[in-house]
Amino acid sequence: MATGADALCQSLEACGVECVFGLPGTQSVPLYEGLRRSRIRSVLATHELSASFMANGYHRASGRLAALFTIQGPGFTYALAGLAEARHDSAALVYLVGRGDSARPFSFQALDQRSMAAPVVKGILSVERAGEIPARIREACDLALGGEPGPVMVEWSAEALTAPAPAEGPGTPPARRAPPPSRAAVEAACGFLAAARRPLLVVGLGAAGAARAVLRLAEALGAPVVTSTSGRGVVPEDHPLSVGFDSARCDTGVLNELVAASDAVLVLGCKLTAAGTADFALRLPEASLVRVDASPEVLESGYPARYPVHGAVEDVVEDLVAAAGRRARGGWDRAEIAGWRRRLRGSGPVEPEPRLHGVSPPSAEAFFGALRRALPRDGILVLDSGLHQTLARRHFEVLSPRGLLLPSDFQSMGFALPAAIGARLAAPERPAVALLGDGGLRMSGMEILTAVRERLALTVVVFNDGYLNRIRLQQLARYGSEMSVDIPGADLETFAAAVGAEYAALENGDAAETLARAIGSGGVTLVEVRVGDSPAVRWAGAKGKVRAAARRALGPTALERLKRVLRRGRMARR
Ligand SMILES: Cc1ncc(C[n+]2csc(CCOP(=O)(O)OP(=O)(O)O)c2C)c(N)n1
């Protein structure tokens, strides 16, 4: 006789879930028995935070839904930060967790999980009886994928899992991301676009499912394309219409000039978060703004549009292409767009970059050029939080949709490696590279064991600098000295051997060749890149010391006033 646990797994299957990430526990023994009897692949993670990052990477690499299974109490609290990351990154996942008895004082592993999870999930459902399971799971999956994707929690009771349950009928495809858009709203947006002479496209991850059509739209409009960080690659960055904006490498002031030179700005599937708008420094005038988004909350937040269209980009884009075809000729010419691209690229923050060994010249630019040559166009680069992320966003060209995954709006360290495992499982045809610092490796490095056990082809590049370097450079720039950022002494070759991975060092020889060998090896390879201080980093530290001494001598307010005067002088000269 089928049990509630069987029904739960069948319901997940019916909703298209092929992969569950998590860890079992006493309470979930029946659930894992249901999982064993299903067709779903169960990936055992080292801990629940990693499991949640795996589900995140799985969704963002494919747009498909993964499930996360943990026990109540400690499994839940371990997963919590990953749920917050998924919420900020708009990663759909359905989270199945046991329910403790929190009403009774001193109950085992009991917490008010609903109150704790409420701020970081899209919705919370509960399953009390086996008969409710198919409807609740369907509801959870539709909610996770609909509108702005995100995590949805389902608390199950132990009784619901062990009770007899009817078998689930055949699956139905997941619900649409959004209802069909209003024709009047689409026609108004199209009319405005058809009359525009110099339209600009701003593209987010919400447009990834319609990437080819978005590219046709850009070409039909002859319009420059800007992306959010997670939308990078929706239009390949080597395409002449891509101006390749990322706040890590371009000045938002220059982007605002490009916006001011446009007479229509079309924002497709883009939340316009702090991370994508350089902390909301991006200015998008309402009068010339068209927004298409599957989420009404996104349309109402932050940047109001004169022409809002509530709908999935894939349901609207063909109408926009047709409207682009009705436009009179004129507008941007390619040389002008190339000029904007050059200007934007040259406008980035002048921050000191470290020295990278094993590439010639020993620079981040040379390293990411080599990585680009080694990784096929559709390869996926998954980043952690840290200096390596900034360097990658500055120097790596993204050539395919979902080609760059990072913990964009929550910035959890420890993300890259498990998220890359999720990405590999979701998109096995696309090679993947996880790039992390030695600090990030300390947080989630044991997941290499998971990648090896699951027989994944995965390249793990570690920037080994002996520091929490991003924070150290901030300390040096401000105070000229460091505190609690020193993490020396990891022998990565020995570590790789201990966890069953191949090892390669980027020392001498052709860096692109070493990286390509690792990427093509079919197994897990840890590639060590030694990172040291460049003269620019040392100079920044020396300036920081002077700044700290001046602050001590003059007091912080006098120094701030002086900085303001200098900044005003610089602006006046521009
Ligand atoms: C969970 C978490 N803790 C702390 C931070 C703050 N933080 C951001 S970057 C960073 C340093 C990362 O060091 P490492 O992984 O070695 O990368 P690197 O900066 O050296 O490239 C820290 C501590 C964070 N983002 N996430």
Helices and strands, with pairings:
Layout: H1 4-14, E1 19-22, H2 29-36, E2 41-44, H3 48-62, E3 66-70, H4 74-89, E4 93-98, H5 113-117, E5 123-127, H6 133-145, E6 151-156, H7 158-162, H8 183-195, E7 199-203, H9 211-221, E8 225-227, H10 252-260, E9 264-268, E10 289-293, H11 296-300, E11 307-310, H12 313-325, H13 334-345, E12 355-356, H14 364-374, E13 380-383, H15 387-395, E14 404-405, H16 416-426, E15 432-437, H17 438-444, H18 447-453, E16 458-464, H19 469-479, H20 492-498, E17 502-505, H21 511-520, E18 524-532, H22 535-554, H23 556-573
Parallel strand pairs: 1-2, 1-3, 3-4, 4-6, 5-6, 7-8, 7-9, 9-10, 10-11, 13-14, 13-15, 15-16, 16-18, 17-18
Antiparallel strand pairs: 12-18
Helix pairs in contact: 1-2, 1-6, 3-4, 3-16, 8-12, 9-12, 14-15, 14-21, 19-22, 22-23
The structure holds thiamine diphosphate (TPP).
Residues 384-388, 411-413, 436-440, 463, 465, 467-471 line the site of thiamine diphosphate.
